[in-house]
Structure formats: structure tokens, C-alpha cells
């Protein structure tokens, strides 16, 4: 997205009667605002991490399996990752399969713990999960058995079941408890800085604090969001929906985590949307996520790769709680800051 924005802006300045804004004209060489768009190397770094994992599997004749949902809509970014890998290692082969397809096509060798695809008998080195993160993806018990075989196999998982569960909201809430972060991070300054980024979170499963937490939620309903222990979006509850849940479905609160609502700075921008339904000069907020890659041996705790690789910015209007790009609520964006005084810029501008 950063490269796309740079290209569009350069084209506009080259072909339209628009004066390019210059910053720091007192300097010998002024810096274009276009050049302040942060580089984003998430794709190439993801490809490099997957190649490293493939090499660690140590079978050049094996393949990589993308486990996808039926009628996959995210095929473009998946193909971009495949292209990036094959530019570096053109001999790596790929397959894309759904859980239901694997019921008949996955073979698990109980002696070697290898998994193969039938009828080609291709050994699978890496399973990249683009499905399996919500219960609806497991349409029957056989799909769960496929996940079990994959987890038991020698194949490298992205993510492993342990990594996937560690990202659940109940784990995030647990990490906010006193002394938990400190168990894993000895550096007091670092643990304090990490803890300073946490939003307040609480659950409703403890009878001793349940009523107190419900009252906090009821009295501050616009300051919190109810989040189920789910992924995939569209499951959160806000404002009046929270009050309705407390009033009519109080027993269901045990399935939710309350999190203090984050109020990011508001900016005025333009949203370019499909079918020409653009929104110009509208108040928006930005959601920034950080990409990272990690290749480790979970048995020995050996780290082969562990680095920040890029970012994702989603920009949406201030009047919506949802944030999905595919659903049309938000658009992809990029960061535009001075690399001379911004810590994020220093990270993403590193030459590797």
C-alpha cells in the first residue's frame, strides 16, 4: 500500500497542476512529503521467514500447504506471498486446500509423523493456516481430526495451536494481571513500558468480582467494548448493545471480555472506495497493527528469526465501530511521518 500511494502521488505531481509541498526548505536538500511515507516490507520479510522454515524442514522435495476456506476471497494476498517466495526459491511447490478437501487427501504417517497429500504423495513441509481460527471453519468432526493430525505431524505450523491460542483475548486479559508480564520479562523498565500500553480488561467468570464488573460496565457503557473470545471480526458489542446484553443475556457475559475503549486521534482525510463511492474530507480514525515474523523450535526454544517486518493501517470514519476492509467499513492506508524524529520510522527504515 505504501508503494502504491507513492506511485499515485508521484503521478499526480508529475501530471497535474499541483505544487509539491516541501518540508525543511532550510536544508540543502529538502524532503518531499511523498518520501516520508514509511517503507513496508511485510510481504518480502514474510516470504523470507517462510523460506527459512522450509529450509529447516530439510526436504527440498517437500511442498507448502495453504489451508484455506471454501470460496476463498483473500486469494490476491496469498498469491502475492507465493510469488514473493518463488522469486527467491522458484522450486518450492504450493498447494491450497480446504479442511473438507483434506479429509480425503491428507495422509498421516504414524511411524514418521510426516503428512502427505494424495494422490501426488507430496510431503508437506509447512502448513500455513488461512482457515481454522473460528469454529465455523470446522464444519464437522472430521475437520477437527485433520487439525489434530497436522498438529501431531512433523510439518512446521504457521501458527501452531499454542501460538494461535496465545493470541486469544482471554490470554490478553490474563497478561494484564499483576506480576504476569514480569514472570517472562526480567527487565523492569521494559516490562513497565509494555504494561503502560495495556488497556483495562476484565472478565465475568469470577463470582467474587462479577457483580462489581457488571456495575462498572453498566455505569461506563460508552467507555468499554465487549469482546468474545473469537476472531474474524463482527462479534463485538458496543454502547446500547452492551446494556441489552446485561439486561437480557446476563448469563452470556461469561463468554465476553470487557476492554476499555481506545479513542485514537481524529484526522480529516479522503477514503477511496470501490465503484467510485469515494468519501472526501471526512473525519476518520486510524488503526495501526505491526507485522512480525518468528521462526522458532518450540521444543528447544531456539529462535531462528524474530523481527518486526512492517505495518498495517486501516482508516475508517468515526461513526462506525466495525473495521473490516473486505466488508467496506475501512480502507488500507499507510504511515507518513518524518524518519528523523519518529521511532516507528527508524524501525521500518532499517536496511537489512
From TrEMBL:
It comes from Adineta steineri. Mg(2+) binds at residue 231. GO terms for molecular function: ATP binding; glutathione binding; glutathione synthase activity; metal ion binding. It catalyses: gamma-L-glutamyl-L-cysteine + glycine + ATP = glutathione + ADP + phosphate + H(+). Substrate binds at residues 78, 314. Pfam families: GSH_synth_ATP, GSH_synthase. Gene3D superfamilies: 3.30.1490.50, ATP-grasp fold, B domain, Glutathione synthase, substrate-binding domain superfamily, eukaryotic. Binds 1 Mg(2+) ion per subunit. Residues 62-166 form the Glutathione synthase substrate-binding domain. This is Glutathione synthetase. It comes from the Eukaryota. Transmembrane segments: none annotated. Keywords: ATP-binding, Magnesium, Metal-binding, Nucleotide-binding. One of its GO terms (cellular component) is cytosol. Its cofactor is Mg(2+). ATP binds at residues 169, 227-236, 238, 259-262, 287, 316, 322.
Amino acid at each position: 500500500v505504501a508503494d502504491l500511494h507513492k506511485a499515485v502521488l508521484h503521478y499526480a505531481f508529475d501530471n497535474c497542476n499541483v505544487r509539491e509541498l516541501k518540508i525543511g526548505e532550510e536544508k540543502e536538500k529538502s524532503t518531499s512529503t511523498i518520501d516520508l511515507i514509511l517503507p513496508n516490507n511485510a510481504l518480502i520479510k514474510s516470504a523470507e521467514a517462510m523460506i527459512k522454515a522450509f529450509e529447516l524442514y530439510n526436504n527440498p522435495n517437500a511442498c507448502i500447504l495453504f489451508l484455506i476456506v471454501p470460496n476463498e476471497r483473500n486469494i490476491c494476498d496469498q498469491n502475492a506471498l507465493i510469488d514473493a517466495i518463488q522469486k527467491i526459491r522458484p522450486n518450492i511447490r504450493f498447494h491450497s486446500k480446504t479442511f473438507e478437501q483434506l479429509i480425503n487427501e491428507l495422509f498421516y504417517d504414524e511411524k514418521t509423523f510426516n503428512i502427505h497429500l494424495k494422490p501426488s504423495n507430496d510431503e508437506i513441509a509447512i502448513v500455513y493456516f488461512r482457515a481454522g481460527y473460528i469454529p465455523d471453519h470446522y464444519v464437522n468432526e472430521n475437520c477437527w481430526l485433520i487439525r489434530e493430525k497436522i498438529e501431531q505431524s512433523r510439518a512446521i505450523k504457521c501458527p501452531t495451536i499454542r501460538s494461535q491460542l496465545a493470541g486469544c483475548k482471554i490470554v490478553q486479559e490474563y497478561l494484564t494481571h499483576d506480576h504476569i508480564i514480569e514472570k517472562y520479562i526480567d527487565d523492569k523498565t521494559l516490562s513497565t513500558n509494555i504494561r503502560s500500553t495495556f488497556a483495562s480488561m476484565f472478565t465475568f467468570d469470577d463470582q467474587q468480582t462479577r457483580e462489581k464488573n457488571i456495575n462498572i460496565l453498566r455505569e461506563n457503557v460508552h467507555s468499554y467494548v465487549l469482546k468474545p473470545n473469537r476472531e474474524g471480526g463482527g462479534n463485538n458489542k458496543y454502547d446500547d448493545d452492551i446494556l441489552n446484553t446485561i439486561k437480557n443475556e446476563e448469563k452470556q457475559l461469561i463468554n465476553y471480555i470487557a476492554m476499555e475503549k481506545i479513542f485514537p486521534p481524529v484526522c480529516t482525510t479522503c477514503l477511496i472506495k470501490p465503484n467510485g463511492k469515494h468519501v472526501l474530507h471526512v473525519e476518520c480514525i486510524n488503526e495501526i497493527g505491526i507485522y512480525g515474523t518468528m521462526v522458532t523450535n518450540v521444543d528447544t526454544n531456539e529462535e531462528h528469526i524474530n523481527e518486526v517486518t512492517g505495518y498495517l493501517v486501516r482508516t475508517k470514519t468515526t461513526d462506525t465501530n466495525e473495521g473490516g476492509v473486505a466488508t467496506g467499513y475501512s480502507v488500507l492506508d499507510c504511515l507518513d511521518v518524518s524518519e528523523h524524529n519518529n521511532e516507528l520510522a527508524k524501525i521500518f527504515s532499517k536496511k537489512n
